[in-house]
Design brief:
The protein is mainly alpha-helical and about 130 residues long. The protein has 6 helices and 2 strands.
Length: about 130
């Protein structure tokens, strides 16, 4: 199904892929105590944020929609073109977003590296999905 020239199923699958990769990185590979140390957030502040967890589905959906727009505007079909678009977007936006919490917040440099890798992996995979189904 298409909406305004975008493959809705591809957007949904890309959003699920982003969410799954984020879960793998931040819930499976990075233990909670290590995440707390790297991010600079206390266990109490993380526990207080648990009530907002259901809203965690929103960022991957918005990212998939934005990546779909970028893939469409780039006008190059194929999964490799999608990966390239995703990685470019990850570097241009993911690095900047990651640096905000490092410069103005509690994140340490190691967390910035993890977060940048997370953006590159998530947006690269989502871009591949969107490019393949363009």
């Amino acid at each position: 199904m298409r909406m305004m020239g975008h493959n809705v199923l591809a957007i949904v699958v890309a959003a699920i892929a982003i969410y799954a990769i984020e879960f793998l990185i931040f819930a499976v590979l990075l233990p909670g105590d290590q995440y707390a140390a790297m991010s600079g957030y206390s266990a109490e502040s993380m526990q207080a944020g648990m009530a907002r967890m259901p809203f965690g589905v929103v960022p991957p959906i918005l990212a998939a929609i934005g990546l779909s727009c970028a893939v469409k505007w780039r006008n190059k079909a194929g999964w490799m073109a999608g990966v390239t678009t995703g990685v470019i977007i990850a570097i241009c936006f993911g690095v900047g977003v990651s640096l905000y919490s490092f410069i103005y917040g509690p994140n340490n440099a190691a967390f910035v590296g993890v977060n940048v890798a997370h953006f590159v992996a998530c947006y690269g995979v989502a871009g591949a999905i969107l490019g393949a189904w363009k």
